[in-house]
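Field reference: sequence -> structure
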Amino acid sequence: MGNWFKTTLLLGALTLLIVWIGHLFGGKQGMIIAFILAMAMNFFSYWYSDKIVLRMYRAQEAAPDRYPELHGIVSELAQRAGLPMPRVYVIPEEAPNAFATGRNPEHAVVAVTEGLLRLMNREEIKGVLAHELAHVKHRDILIGSVAATLAGAIMILANMARWTAIFGGGSSDNEEGGGLGGVGLIVMSILAPIAAMLIQMAISRSREYQADAGGASFAGNPEGLAGALEKLGAYSKRLPMHANPSTAHMFIVNPLSGRSLMHLFSTHPPIEERIARLRGRRPPPAGSGDSGSLSGEDQAKAAWRRLSGS
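Structure field:
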């Protein structure tokens, strides 16, 4: 209950951020318009966010006759988790990754990239899908989809502010104090997306640990997911994914981890900590490279060497 209360507050903070941006653009009138827009987006994202995200990544529904093993794994895990069979999609992307979306377990979707199916063995694919079904079981998928929609709106407004400043806008002397000068627009265009990312981080990080634990339980063995996370950590640096920052928190690992600036605002806990928890070990201290525990960078390099056979 505490987690739901915290998440509701954070989603409210994203909504208020949109309203604040509206106030900066147009005073009281802009604030009202932004509030109506935010409410409309909350309603729209409840019903259609899954379709938006799937279309964004050109995901195609996986036909059972073409992907029989994938459907078999999902069906087995759904039965173990006590969930309806979700729809299964495949994303035409070389980078291995996966996410779940939908407004509730009855309308859930799990999506995996072609790269994940190609690079993972059966137990690792099972671990990844179990993690995503744990998100479905915990009803994280609607929260993640709504957060992605609101964060996307904030980034669009920030881009509008940046272009308005570049082309000489923002000089309004609105008597209600809503107008911003060019410098103010530029500052807002930088700070608003950072605030949105921080809120996404707060929503997402604790839920990843819960989904790891739940996924290990559904799969019956934590090693499949732990091994998958090792590979994902290695490949995320070698095969960067073309992902929208507003949806980064939805994936099993941060698809932006190859970009150093985005890594500072990662919506996911460190992969090495997740692996250590799954294997019942104490997470390695930040920056330490010894004591029998490999750092995240060393784990990624070791996994890459094993995969490439070098």
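Note: Residues 2-56 form the longest helix (55 residues).
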